[in-house]
Amino acid sequence: MEFKSSLLICFLAIQFVPILCASQDFDFFYFVLQWPGSYCDTSKSCCFPSTGKPEADFGIHGLWPNYNDGTYPSNCDSSAPYDQSKVSDLISKMQQEWPTLACPSGTGSTFWSHEWDKHGTCSESILDQHSYFATALKLKDQLNILQLLSKAGISPDGNNYSLSSIKSAIQEGIGHAPWIECNKDTSGNSQLYQIYICVDTSGSNLIECPTFPHGKCDSNIGFPTF
Ligand SMILES: *[C@@H]1O[C@H](CO)[C@@H](O)[C@H](O)[C@H]1NC(C)=O
């Protein structure tokens, strides 16, 4: 009912203010976490942020508006560029939980600004810049992926784990199947790199993923130390 009436409003509004409808046009979010150990042990390597080595935990990569068909909108509003003064109360938390590992070392603002400009502007009608970053931080705290993996005996100790055991531990912990993205360490071994979790358009409810990204992990993957 709610969906139908918002469609109707959108239909009526489209004749007068099409931009309103275009700006909220996405189906769900991917909330993407990355394992810093797997970012850093590749041939490309990494640089710790100028604020110091991040803690050994999954870091946020981003909260990405997506379409059910697997495509996604990007760079939706060049008139609303990243403005760090709008998230000043969140910066210390972002430094901890959304650390940049790109080279050369930075404070994180280049990373956050890329995420907002490319992805965040596409969910602007629902989450303004402050809510966008606050929502991602809240999701990270709620999920606590490292802890639920460790309860299932899976920890970043440099050993290999079966992909299916990692998926089921997360599914049991959060109630929905995640998508796992792997990359390769310097010896070419497949390892746990990023975890994709699907969230509804409000940014607050986890959902079953309407579609999964592409890519493949080996059936046994590394979980390197950091
Ligand atoms: C993990 O698996 C790879 C590929 O089979 C293997 O080369 C590597 O030695 C394994 N690592 C450990 C710590 O067992």
From TrEMBL:
Pfam families: Ribonuclease_T2
Entry similarity comment: Belongs to the RNase T2 family.
Signal peptide: 1-22
Key words of the record: Disulfide bond, Endonuclease, Hydrolase, Lyase, Nuclease, Signal
GO annotation, biological process: RNA catabolic process
CDD domains: RNase_T2_euk
GO MF annotation terms: hydrolase activity; ribonuclease T2 activity; RNA binding
Positions of the catalytic residues: H61, E115, H119
Descriptive protein name: Endoribonuclease
GO cellular component: extracellular region
Record-linked SUPFAM superfamilies: Ribonuclease Rh-like (SSF55895)
InterPro entries: Ribonuclease_T2_eukaryotic, RNase_T2-like, RNase_T2-like_sf, RNase_T2_His_AS_1, RNase_T2_His_AS_2
